[in-house]
Amino acid sequence: MADVPETIVSSETTTGLSKVEVIRIDETRIGEAAVEYVPAEAEFKIVVNGRVETSLHCAPHRIKSLVVGWLMAEGIIERDIDFLAIDTDLDQFVIRVTLSREAAIALEARAFTGPIGQFNEPDFPRKVTTALELKPEQVTDLAQQFKKLFLGLRSSERMCYLAAFAQNGEIQSYGEGFHRVNALYRALGELVVAGVAPNDRIALANFGLTRQMTLRLARAGVCMAICAAPPSNAAIEVGNDYYLSIISTAIGGRITVYSAPWRVV
Question: Residue 167 is part of a domain; what is its CATH number?
Fold first, then answer.
């Protein structure tokens, strides 16, 4: 039986991680005090062009990738040059972002439907063609590459969610996090910061997709998602609408195609 942190007694924050006192209980039910590092989560306000727009619950590492990925997935920016500057205040938990005029107009179009942070979900045009197809063995190979990437990360024991983007059989970026959507945003942000458009890329994730996550992939122009768990029924509907093939490798060596099946030949 693996050691299990049962009780958090106190904590202090370091860069990206928080040191906590825990009680570990072994198979004999004997507990002992120990120290462990866990992700340091905080609520960061996102201020865009001088106005508070939303908040993100996240660890304070790779903030730029996280915010740029959020902007892209929400349809606010289309290119890396739309993102002009970022300033992070780790004491006040504020992230200030400066966008181009065109991106600011796009942000205005995403009118709020409720409290801060709740954008509406307007229809958007399909951004992919039907061209990209992979053979089943290519899907399996990418899934294996992704698994090796996850197992090779030092943070894999603590940051349990990982997302990545690939093209031509090669993983190009990745993002990890203790929230699934944050992992997705970071991986997407890494692409955009590098000046690479996400159009027609392949997303990989060690989790299943929800409707909201699938919408964000489709809005960025992603055409395929290879996941380690099944998607929701609503995610499948979005995948079919936007020609986004969702594939699960959850059971052994078998792959299951849930949407846009013509992409897997």
Answer: 3.40.140.10
